[in-house]
Amino acid sequence: MTVRKHTRTKWRISGKATAPAELKETVALPGIGLTIPVRAAKAKLSALLELVAQGQQVTITSDGSPKAVLSPVTAGLARKPWAGMGEFLRRQPVHGGPPAEEVVRQDRDGRGW
User: What's the CA gap between 47 and 54, in Å, rounded?
Assistant: First the structure.
């Protein structure tokens, strides 16, 4: 039995692959900006992402109406890190009333247990 050794192949990147792709399906609409139909967006997603990475905002349309917007990521719009529920719970008002043990005891006593 012969065991094959797996080797990684590095593929050469051609000049065409790094050149900006043509998006003939895009249309610039007033008030909306650069738009592309959803079918063309699915077919040309890589080219769209390259365009967005360069700073362009692209609106995806379906049946002629805008459905989604692809926009570049900016550092200022990062999500807040999850801090857990502790701080949220500490900010909640304290509700008065008997402790849970007393409520359970009263319930048990009321049922005759």
Answer: 11
For the whole prediction, is pTM greater than 0.85?
A: no
Structure tokens, 95: 């509700």
Pair of tokens at residue 65: 């109406």
Rounded Cα distance, 62 and 58, in Å: 13
Instruction: For residue 90, give the H/E element and its range.
Output: helix 86-91
CATH code, 19-73+80-111: 3.40.1620.10
CA-based nearest residue to 33, from 67, 72, 59, 71: 59
pLDDT digits (tens, 9 = 90+) for 46-64: 988 888 888 888 999 998 8
How do the domains of the chain map onto residue ranges? 19-73+80-111
Query: Of 95, 91, 35, which Cα lies nearest the Cα of 63?
Result: 35
Q: Which residue has the tokens 């006593």?
A: 109
**CA–CA distance, 105 with 98 (Å, rounded to integer):** 11
